[in-house]
Amino acid sequence: MTEKKLEKVAGNGLISRRHLLGMGATGVGLAASNSVLGQNSGINFEIPGWSRTPGPGPSNYGSRSRYTAAVQRSTAFQNPTYPGGGASRSPLQHLQGTITPNALHFERHHAGIPDIDPAGHKLVINGLVRQALAFSYEDLLKYPMVSSVYFLECAGNSGALLRGGNEDGTAQSIHGLVSCAEWTGIPLSTLLDEAGVLPEARWVAAVGADAASMGRSIPIEKALDDVMVALFQNGEPVMPGQGYPMRLFVPGWEGNISVKWLTQIKLTRAAAQFRDETSKYSDTLPDRSSYQFTFPMGTKSLITSPSGQMSLRNAGIYQITGIAWSGSGSISRVEVSADGGQTWADASIQGLQLDKALTRFTIPWEWNGGPAVLQSRATDSRGNVQPTRDVILAERGNISFYHNHCIQSWAVSNSGEVTNVYV
Amino acid sequence: MYKKIVFPLLAICIALNSLVVNSQERVRLGTPISEADLEGFDLIAEPDGSGFPSGGGTARQGKAVYDINCAVCHGANGEGTSGNTIIVGGDMQSEGPPLRTVGSYWPYASTVFDFIRRAMPATAPKSLTNAQVYQVTAYILFMNGIIGEDTELNANTLVNIEMPNADGFVDRSHIHSIE
């Protein structure tokens, strides 16, 4: 394929997504131009050592290649006054597809990870019900289960962008508090049905069995809709850092409400007004009033490659890729700009476009070796379009940093260095 | 979810009647319990006063509880030792970004009791008695100028405390998805 045939669809080198067909990871045309007839390629074709010696046999629980060991979550400095508290972020720029491996799913704990023996754990349903009930883990395993792929995003994800700075930020350091998994469990409505919800119950209060006994309130309509008590994450028992033996999963809503290590569901008349739905996860506006109970996460996307702290070696064709999601539906469109938002081209969706799940997008781009600003903009199935940072700042200022879903801008310099910028 | 599967089956597959009947039998494995069983387990203390234990305490009593169990992280006067441990002071109408604390920001006094009982002190949560939680809650409210040093804090008095920023919140809980 030659340069002439590449259909440019937006400014600064964006190429029609149609050219993705038949294109390898290295990019359009490069393979063909590299082949030189009759000359030695310089590649070593000697049979390697690992093809001459049997390796270790099967194992009981797999581990990844030691050559990929650098793909890690990032954990913040542990504050001694906050035992077990803090977060780890998913290495978004090193991942592909849409499912986050369990060991790389982001974490946010308020008092560390409890070491729960499932035999000693119970789930209680009480309050405004006909009959209060207790369930053991063994009980719950016997219920019919449902599975869905859902993203989970901390309300504080990407909040750093509202404050500015973070010139050296990466996809992981700025946006790594989002992950996606297949969650399997029991619809909460099944268990609530068994207890018999009284008509005056308007909310459920969910509490975890960690040392913080973290609690959150959820309106009854949502609790009876798509909320589940999740027991499995990508097919295996939920990881301890994700709430083993069970967590609440509240699709599309701010991560903190999907209470981990779930041990109590109490039906109440009003919200319990826990610390983490008053003092935290609320957003103070410029007029000093504060939004409380901002539940659905906004329509959002970001380019994961090229992204902050990467460097492009040569001018040429690159595969732009990233993730998009919405707490209110599925992703219907992702556009990409290479000129800081002046012109846009439609990216192609790679794989599934599921409700409230990460969606992978991709588009080829020819970098001409000059400056560029790469952005992506998602639209969801309800027509919500991801806003710019300026729009978010104008609407709500930057006193609070939760619930930010603005467009991310990555600048590419003449020398190919990629950095976080504000345009 | 159950209904979605069962009803289409019922409508079309009369021949599979026995299967349908089986799948309609609900799994019901919850063990009936009483609220009395949950005393000491259910720690939810709500703004309307439900869930609060008996007893009470004053700020004067709470100073000792605070000095021994809290000051190391929250400072001698609640001024904090790090960003997330400041629990006294602040003003929502300040010129610069407001310092948001228990005193300046929190809408309900019930949350102070509820949170301390379940989560504090951070190194040994749930190690205080209910009386100590009342006392230290009173002391934090006193340091914030919200109650007097000898005000008795209990299930009845606590729900009547008007927090300075009680009217500062816009409830968005009706928004379950964005149109």
Description:
The complex is a heterodimer of chains A (423) and B (179). Chain A contains seven helices and 26 strands. By secondary structure, chain A is mainly beta. Chain A has two domains: 102-291, Sulfite Oxidase, Chain A, domain 2, CATH 3.90.420.10; 300-421, Immunoglobulin-like (Sandwich), CATH 2.60.40.650. Chain A has a five-stranded mixed β-sheet with strand order 7-6-15-10-11. In chain A, strands 8, 9, 12, 13 and 14 form a five-stranded antiparallel β-sheet that branches. In chain A, β6 and β7 (133-136) form a beta hairpin. The longest helix of chain A has 8 residues, at 188-195. Chain A is globular and about 80 Å long. Chain B has 179 residues and is mostly helical. The radius of gyration of chain B is 24 Å and the shape is globular. In chain B, α1 packs antiparallel against α2 and α3 (59-69) crosses α6. Chain B folds into two domains: 2-27; 36-160, Orthogonal Bundle (Cytochrome Bc1 Complex, Chain D, domain 2), CATH 1.10.760. Mean pLDDT of chain B is 89; it is low at 1-23. In chain B, strands 2-3 form a two-stranded antiparallel sheet. In chain B, 35% of the residues lie in helices and 5% in strands. Chains A and B meet through β6, β7, α5, β15 and β17 of A and β1, α5 and β4 of B.
